[in-house]
């Protein structure tokens, strides 16, 4: 351990513009989720390790390499959440929320993965999350993707992201397609990368999103899911595509877009950007109808998505610096005492106000101007005697007297 007091690798401290960008993402998410009727949900930041091992799959990199797992004092194995969906699914089962289905839930907060930090990727990062639990209709897929598109539009990211869409079909479709993929890749096993040979045994669909140049040629010739699509799965995907068209959501088909675990069904999607280098996905999700059963709960159709707050924030235009409406400038002991009363009256009236604490009148006025205040509210002995304040419009230098009890209305 270093003797120097410093942040842990892969974490970050945010202030100023970075913090402002982060807040814009969260505030926009909160505003848009209300338009779509998604209710906020809070779940613990750590769970029993089995919750994530069963939901993410023992063979995935997240479970085998990236989770922050520890044993508590009672000997229980616990894990800091690497994502939200598993914890929300666990809460749905353990709290008996089935009686409220369908539920539209949203959350945001920190998540943790031990991976190599790089631009847009941290070991403690933050996610937005949206889930529809208990709805087994294509309309739910359309709804949650439309929510995602609306969020990105409200963040001003039109033209910076592209929606990639695919289907994994129903279990019948997926099983037939996976068998064809295994046969195809097994016939070219020696040409596969080491990682893809391992995936062939454990998670063959993951070969389709391999970044290895040797694998890409084999992936290009791999069987396509459409050749194995059942009538029901084809009708579902058609309904989703038509729904997105009706909702005005542009999309492009990406047949290599997959999710490796068996509980994923039908729709899968990602919003991709080319503005962040290698970290191309800013929001992704899909339908996971088999997850609740994998966790020991009842069969429950579900669809959801997650987005990285840091990555979205990096795409934003620089937000305007926060400014205050009024700076209270007290001069003298009596005015200092009165300033607290004036400040609270302004703030409770919805007016952002600060107090210039130190220095002579000139220095305090300079601080008020530097804080971006529109007005300076000057309190001195003369003003207090008259029950008034001198209000100065800092942009023009114009000033006038206002009765103290009329200040909030005058500044509003």
UniProtKB/TrEMBL annotation:
GO molecular function annotations of the record: histidine-tRNA ligase activity
Subcellular location: Cytoplasm
EC top class named in words: ligase
Enzyme Commission designation: 6.1.1.21
Xref: PROSITE patterns: AA_TRNA_LIGASE_II (PS50862)
Keyword Nucleotide-binding (UniProt): yes
Catalytically driven reaction(s): tRNA(His) + L-histidine + ATP = L-histidyl-tRNA(His) + AMP + diphosphate + H(+)
Domain Aminoacyl-transfer RNA synthetases class-II family profile, first and last residues per copy: 1-330
Gene3D superfamilies attached to this UniProt entry: Anticodon-binding domain, Bira Bifunctional Protein, Domain 2
Pfam families linked to this entry: HGTP_anticodon, tRNA-synt_His
Keywords, comma-separated and alphabetical: Aminoacyl-tRNA synthetase, ATP-binding, Cytoplasm, Ligase, Nucleotide-binding, Protein biosynthesis
Cross-referenced InterPro entries: aa-tRNA-synth_II, aa-tRNA-synth_II/BPL/LPL, Anticodon-bd, Anticodon-bd_dom_sf, His-tRNA-ligase, HisRS-like_core, HisRS/HisZ, HisRS_anticodon
PANTHER family: HISTIDINE--TRNA LIGASE, MITOCHONDRIAL-RELATED, HISTIDYL-TRNA SYNTHETASE
Family matches, as NCBIfam families: hisS (TIGR00442)
Assembly, per entry: Homodimer.
Family in the record: Belongs to the class-II aminoacyl-tRNA synthetase family.
Protein name (database record): Histidine--tRNA ligase
Source species taxonomy: Bacteria, Pseudomonadati, Pseudomonadota, Alphaproteobacteria, Sphingomonadales
Gene that this sequence comes from: hisS
């Amino acid at each position: 351990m270093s003797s120097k007091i410093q942040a842990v690798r892969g974490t970050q401290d945010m202030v100023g513009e970075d913090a402002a960008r982060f807040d814009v993402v969260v505030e926009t998410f909160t505003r848009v989720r209300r338009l779509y009727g998604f209710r906020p949900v809070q779940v613990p930041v750590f769970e029993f390790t089995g919750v994530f091992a069963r939901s993410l799959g023992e063979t995935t990199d997240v479970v085998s390499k990236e989770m922050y797992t520890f044993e508590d004092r009672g000997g229980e194995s616990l894990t800091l959440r690497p994502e939200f969906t598993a914890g929300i699914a666990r809460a749905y089962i353990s709290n008996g929320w089935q009686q409220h289905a369908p539920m539209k839930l949203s959350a945001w907060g920190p998540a943790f993965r031990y991976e190599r930090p790089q631009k847009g990727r941290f070991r403690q990062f933050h996610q937005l999350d949206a889930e529809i639990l208990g709805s087994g209709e294509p309309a739910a897929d359309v709804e949650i993707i439309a929510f995602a598109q609306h969020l990105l539009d409200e963040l001003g990211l039109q033209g910076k992201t592209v929606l990639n869409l695919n289907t994994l079909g129903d279990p019948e479709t997926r099983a037939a397609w996976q068998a064809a993929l295994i046969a195809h890749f097994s016939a070219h096993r020696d040409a596969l990368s080491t990682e893809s040979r391992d995936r062939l045994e454990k998670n063959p669909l993951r070969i389709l999103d391999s970044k290895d140049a040797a694998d890409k040629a084999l992936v290009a010739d791999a069987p396509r899911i459409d050749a194995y699509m059942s009538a029901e799965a084809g009708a579902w995907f058609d309904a989703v595509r038509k729904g997105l068209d009706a909702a005005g959501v542009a999309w492009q088909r990406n047949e290599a877009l997959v999710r490796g675990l068996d509980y994923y069904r039908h729709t899968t999607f990602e919003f991709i950007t080319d503005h962040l280098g290698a970290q191309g996905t800013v929001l992704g999700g899909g339908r996971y109808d088999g997850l609740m059963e994998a966790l020991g709960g009842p069969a429950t159709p579900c669809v959801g998505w997650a987005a990285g707050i840091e990555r979205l924030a990096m795409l934003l235009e620089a937000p305007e610096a926060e400014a205050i409406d009024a700076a209270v400038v007290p001069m003298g002991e009596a005015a200092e005492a009165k300033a607290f009363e004036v400040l609270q009256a302004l703030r409770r009236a919805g007016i952002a106000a600060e107090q210039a604490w130190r220095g002579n009148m000139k220095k305090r006025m300079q601080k008020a101007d530097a804080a971006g205040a529109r007005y300076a509210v000057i309190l001195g002995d003369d003003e207090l005697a008259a029950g008034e304040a001198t209000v100065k419009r800092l942009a023009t230098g114009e000033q006038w007297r206002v009765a103290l009890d009329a200040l909030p209305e005058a500044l509003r």
